[in-house]
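Dear support,

We are seeing what looks like truncated structure output for some complexes. This example has two components. We would appreciate it if you could run it in full and send us the complete token output so we can diff it against ours.
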Amino acid sequence: MTVLAFLDTSHLPVLVVIGLAIFFGTVGAKLFKRLHIPQVVGYITVGLIVGQSGLKIIHEQVIESLEPFNFFALGIIGFLIGGELHREVFKKHGRQFLTILLSEGLGAFVLVSLSVGGIVYLIRGDLATAAAMGLVFGALSSATAPAATANTLWEYRTRGVLTTATFAIVALDDALALGLYSLAAGVATILTGHGEGSLGAMLGQTAWELLGGAGLGVLVGIGLNFLVRRGGDHDNSLAFIVGALAVVIGTARAVKLDAILAAMALGATLSNLAPRRSQEAFRIVERFAPPLYVLFFVIVGAHINLSSMPAWMWALAVPYVVARSLGKILGSNVGARMAGAPAVLRKYLGFCLFCQGGVAVGLSILAAARFGGELGTAFILIIAVTTFVVEILGPPFVKFAARRAGEIGLNVTEDDLMGEYTVGDMVSRTAPTFREDTPLSRILRTIAETDAMTYPVTDRQGTLVGVVTIQDLKQSFRAEGLGDWLLAFDVMQPPADTVAETMPLAEAVARMREQELEYLPVIAADDHSRLVGLLELRKVSRDLSQELLSRRQRAEASQQSPPAGLSEPEGS
Amino acid sequence: MRIQDHLVPGRIVLLKAKAKAQALGELVCLLADDAPGIEREELSRAVLQRESLMSTGIGQGLGVPHVRMAGLRQVMMAIGVSREGIEDYGSLDGKAVRIILLIGAPAGQHEEYIRLLALVTEVLKSAELREAILAAKSPQDVYSLLTGGGPS
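Here is the complete output from our reference environment:
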């Protein structure tokens, strides 16, 4: 009986569901990655397949029971985003960002309000309902999901002015959305005759949520900074951070503060109080976060129920997405123009702001609770379905924008860079080599003319048969008269090790460091003894540092590039 | 380094063979029989492989076939003397080879092997010594010339 109960998916233990979700989410993301689609989309699609819209393996009750976890995952994401907000960036770009933020948020708000309101009016013929729906959808549309956006930027290791601006905008526009929502909901409540409490009271409530959330994050952040500084090792830091996050998020939820904003404030506080030391702490959290991300996004997908959508509402989803996207693109463009921001922001920032997630969904649930009935269902379902659409479409647009801005792959370490190459990319194919019948005199001449320390030796067919090292030749330097008849064959040693052309560079370099080899002969992958060339550790690290430097310079250059054709608006 | 550390009178032979293959074969047998764990065929193959890359007839009637092998425990030498000369050795100067010094070394013994090659070729630069060796009546005489009597 217990086996049968286990087979009935509605009784799967929660931990099994979590495990399967993480497993299949990761597998799904790998498949999507192969198609060059950001992994977030893969997680969500897997969620759709196993969730309410598909196989229903993950049940509503499970999803509900995981709600505290969802907030924790959002908190981690918020914390990491907060960590990206450095004081200097705000000092330098604060005014630009604020202008762009207002412009892109209001752009989406205005266009969505007009188009959704207009369509509702055409279908229902009721101006009050149309205006109410328009305003609330407009407010919801202004939010950008930090999670999927940031995840995409992290995945592609972007760096530069577009990346910085995107992080700042997505971190801040939730606050804008909350503000707009409380205004819009207040007006809509009055228009539709719902509601409890005045517009002023609702504004007060919003102010409390935002300021209180930020204050809580800053306060705990100061304490956390103290603990991390005193705590010493990494395990302690991770434990302190996770503990602080849980406390911040739980407290914020309990007293109705903005939990995500609180987590962001926590991250920003830590990163600004100890810019250097906290980098390590953020890296630890980043390493610990992936399974949480996977689970979180799979659950977002599982939560969406496509089948319960009434026909006419689909008609609202399309203009909502179109108007929101246009609003963000036009708004960013206008805002960047007004702020005199670099051209790259004018052209591409809007494309980075399509993702829609937790805040919009959360607000839609609040709106449903406030308005109830058909109106309420409309908020939840349209936000759910459009969230799905833009979560699928959003990350590829982020990637597109980052690519056009030339910021992909600029935020790399030497280890990351090494992961991009194989041995074949770095092998010196023209390194001097000897045939086994090369006389010693010629070998000595070549050694004098080149700066290698190891020379591969091949037979007539090009097969690697050994190596000649300067060390090995020390004896023959003195011996006169041997030069003409001693051959490479007589003085070579068997190669200490070889690597195949197709081996990942990181693996080969690790092997060289382990064996303390400066040089390693490289052989063809298909034919296991044909010599391809020589892998030189010195050259590899020189090439890697050069590439790293050039990528960093490209990122720096884009950060500092003056606004094209516009002077700084400081003086005006 | 001394020649006697690598040579015993028993590994010196007055060659009757007139062809390179037979002469090398005789020396290979002498060396292999003194080296435990080394088969004659194995040593012979290695010597011939080296000869196929380039002849070790280095001129002045000298042949210095040499080889490194994993099974050898020390640097060893065998010497063959041919008064009539071996015409088909393929010397660099085109002349017949009269003194063949076969040197075998362990695969890892790099320095000692090169030094011994250098030493014997240096020693045998002396035309006087070469004549004396060719005139010697027995392997023991050759041994004495190389280890004591000769200029070293």
